[in-house]
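Format notes (please read before filing issues)

Several people have asked whether sequences and C-alpha cells are stored in separate files. They are not. Every record keeps both together, in the order shown below: the sequence lines, then the C-alpha cell lines. Line labels are part of the format and must not be stripped during preprocessing.
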Amino acid sequence: MSENVFDVRRNWLLIAVKCAIVVLFLTGVYSTMSFLESTDNAMSSSFPADAEQNLYSITDTFLDDGAFERVRADPEEMAKVADFYNTLNTSEELTLISAFAQPIVVADFRGGDEFDAWLGAETLAPGEYVDEVSRKTVRDVRAVQMNKHAFEFAGLDVEQGTVPNWEAIDYDSGVIPVLLGAGYAGVYEVGDVLDAQFYSRDFTFQVSGLLPAGSSMYYKGDINTFLDDTMLVPYPPEMDSQDRDSPFFDGVLAFAMLNSDVAAPKTDSPDQVLNTIDRAARDTGFTDYAMIDVPQYLTQFSMTRELLQRNAGLMGMLQVLVGIVATVLVFAISAFALRRRLVALRLRWTLGQSRGTLQLSLASMVLVEWACIAVSLHLLYNALPTYDSVASSSIPWILAALAAIDLGCTTALGTSRFTQVGASA
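Then the structure lines:
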C-alpha cells in the first residue's frame, strides 16, 4: 500500500493525463454507440426497407361546392364512393393510405395551447372558447384521422395501452378509441374519456394508448410529421354510406377518407397502378377522381436515409481514428511511467525481493490507475442527461480489455527490465 501511495504522489500528473485521455475516449465511444443505435432505430421505424415504394395521391375532381353537395345528397352516388374506397382499401395490389389532418373539438380539455390546432396559425389564435350550441367550453385540438394502412405504413405503435382493434371501430356506437401523442403523458391516461365533436357530430373518445416520443408519419409531402402533440382518430374498417341519419357527417367523412395516398411497389409502373385504380372505378361506377404522382416521398425517403447512413459511417470512422490516437497516447504514457518506476523496482530487485513480489507491486500500481479511470467514468455517466443500455453495458468490457492489455504489457516489460539488471550484476 505504501508503494502505491508513493507512486501516486510521484506520478500523479501522468496518471491524471492518462485518466483524462481514457475517460474522454470512452465517453466518445459511448456517445457514438448511442448515436448509431438511435440512428438504426430511426431507420428501422421511420425508414423500413419495405417503405421504398412509389406513392401516388388520389383526389376527387369536384371543383365546386355545388357538385360536391349534389353527390353528398344522392345516396346512390355516395354508395359508389363507398364501394370505390372499400375496393381500394382491400386491394392486394396496392396499399391505400388514408390520413387527414382535421381539428377535433374537445369540451373541458385538460391540456394547454401546445395541443391547440391553431397554435402558430396566422388566421386564428389558439385558446378555449364557448361553443354556441352546447354552451360548453371547448378547444380545437390537433388531430389526424387515419385508416389501418396509414398507421402501419408509418410504422407506428404504442408505448402505453394498446392499439385499437381496427376491425371493431364502429362510429354508430358513439364511442371511438383514440391514440394520443407522447406529449399527452400526464394530461390524459389510458382509459380516460373525452367529450368530442367530430365533423359536428358528438362522440365519446376513449384513450386506448399513448405513442412513443418522437413518433412521426409521412403526410402531404412532409416525410416526418411529428405526432407528439397530436390525437390519432382511427377510421372504421370500411366506408359505410347507408346511414342517412347524419348525411352531413357521412358526406364529409367519406371524402376525407377518399382523398388519400396509394403506395405501390417500385417495380410497378404508374400505368400498372392506374390500371388497378381504373378497374376499381369501373367496377364501382365512381369515376370522379384523379391520380397524382408524388415523387417527393421517395426522394425525401432516399435522401434522408442516405444522410443518416453517411453520418453514422462518418461518426464510426472518426471514433476509430480517435481510438487509435488515444491508444498510442495511453501506452506512451504507460511506457514513460514504467521508466520512472523501474528505478525503485531495480533497487528492490537488487535488495533481494522476489520476482513475484515486484510483479504484484507493479500490477497494483497499474490497477490503481485503472481504478481511478473506472470511478471517473462512473461519476461522469451518472451525470449524463441520456442513458443508453447497450452502450452502458459495452463500455465496461472495453475498459476491462484496455486495462488487461495495459496491465499485461506493463508487467511483462517491467519484469524483463528489472531482472536484466540483476542478471548483469
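For reference, the curators noted about this record: The longest helix spans residues 295-350. The CA atoms of residues 147 and 370 lie 57 Å apart.
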